[in-house]
Design goal:
By secondary structure, the protein is of the alpha/beta class. The chain contains 17 helices and 18 strands. Helix 10 runs parallel beside helix 12. It is globular.
């Protein structure tokens, strides 16, 4: 039924946004819990129900959300068989953190800190030192990795404590700044094929009496972006990664645990104008905006000086029925980036003056500024269960 012209739009209340389970059920809590099991100094077991193991492997499947996995049991029989034991036998998922995007999640995994501490707050954010947008996945324009993200990785701490530590991933990730700030420590082993990564990960697990091994697969995410999670290409990748996970599980050495998780889920965005709101063609959304950061479903909006309140008002009026729209202060206070008291002061200026997180199957695209990203079918970044929830599947020997 059409809304009467005299009624105000039904703005989504910020309190209705699902919050990541920072401190007790998020990706940032996984490695600290494992490290605590080895008595690595400075870490506590934040995730209840995870029994310690001498050897632990984390297999992170980029883009394989909890909701997508549960919806495709035929394509992933092995992973599906592990769902009931997810998160220490509770049958529950983890949450990724906000934004639910790769750079943010990998930094949370590797450092064991929330986004408001490590500071990788989205696909692109403003660099306060230059005033320009920085792409934190590609690390462009380049900035000093150690200055941008100064926290030690759990891998480095574990390695220093005598735990055999290794990463097994595609060779081109070896020297990237994102790897340096999020996943470095111990040894890196570059392997091109998924099968070779699984085999090497098993060997690295067996190489120490106490071992921490991380391995990664990206093509589920890539197929989802390109073709959507409702595509044969995506289903094919899910079938392949299911076999990879089983291959690794069958090679686990004694006293080992394998955790299969992900950095985020994904939703398909219809390819029509109502579902893809083009910032570059919308004069209302562009008024007073100096920079548009983030990605389609999780936008950082940076206002020209003095215009932040007006930008918030307009974005809330235009998008508030389909997006949670918050000021920087509101998002921080609500806990989007972590417990409010945990926010690192160096990080605050990176957050948009206005944040817009999608509730419906919509995105704010920018066809001229971001032509490639605007064409993606599968997207992620927001607070919805489809994007936030990720598995924590477990195999033990």
């Amino acid at each position: 039924m059409a809304q009467p012209a005299w009624e105000e739009p039904a703005i989504l209340p910020l309190g209705s946004a699902p919050l990541p389970q920072y401190g007790h059920g998020s990706l940032a809590d996984l490695l600290p819990t494992l490290a605590a099991g080895w008595a690595v100094p400075g870490y506590r077991a934040a995730l209840s129900g995870l029994a310690p193991a001498d050897r632990a492997c984390v297999f992170l499947i980029d883009g394989l959300g909890w909701e997508q996995l549960r919806a495709h049991p035929a394509e992933a029989p092995f992973l599906t068989s592990l769902i009931a034991g997810s998160r220490g036998g509770s049958g529950q998922p983890l949450t990724s953190g906000f934004p639910s995007t790769t750079a943010t999640s990998l930094a949370s995994v590797g450092t064991g800190t929330v986004p408001g501490q490590h500071g990788l707050l989205g696909y692109t954010v403003r660099n306060p030192a230059t005033g320009d947008l920085m792409n934190q996945l590609r690390w462009q324009p380049w900035t000093s990795p150690g200055a941008w993200q100064p926290y030690e990785t759990v891998f480095r701490a574990a390695d220093a404590a005598g735990v055999h530590t290794a990463q097994v991933s595609a060779p081109h990730f070896r020297e990237t700044p994102l790897t340096q700030v999020a996943l470095s420590g111990g040894t890196f082993h570059g392997r091109l094929t998924g099968e070779d990564r699984m085999d090497r990960a098993a060997l690295e697990l067996a190489a120490g009496d106490r071992s921490l091994v991380y391995t990664y697969y990206s093509e589920v995410d890539a197929s989802g972006h390109r073709y959507g999670v409702d595509s044969d290409a995506w289903r094919g990748q899910l079938m392949h990664v299911d076999r990879l996970a089983q291959r690794l599980a069958e090679q686990l050495p004694p006293r080992s645990v394998l955790y299969v998780t992900a950095d985020h889920g994904m939703v398909d965005i219809p390819q029509d104008e109502p579902s893809r709101i083009d910032f570059d063609e919308d004069w209302e959304l562009g008024a007073g905006v100096a920079l548009l950061g983030g990605e389609g479903r999780a936008r950082h909006v940076y206002a020209v000086p003095g215009a932040a309140a007006d930008v918030l008002t307009v974005w809330r009026e235009v998008l508030g029925e389909q997006f949670w729209v918050a000021s920087r202060e509101e998002a921080v206070e609500a806990g989007w980036f972590g417990p409010p008291g945990a926010l690192d002061t160096r990080v605050l200026p990176r957050i948009g003056d206005v944040l817009a997180a999608a509730h419906d199957r919509v995105a704010v695209v920018a066809t001229r500024r971001e032509p490639r990203e605007s064409e993606l079918i599968g997207m992620h970044g927001s607070l919805t269960p489809e994007e936030q929830l990720v598995p924590l599947l477990e195999v033990r020997t």
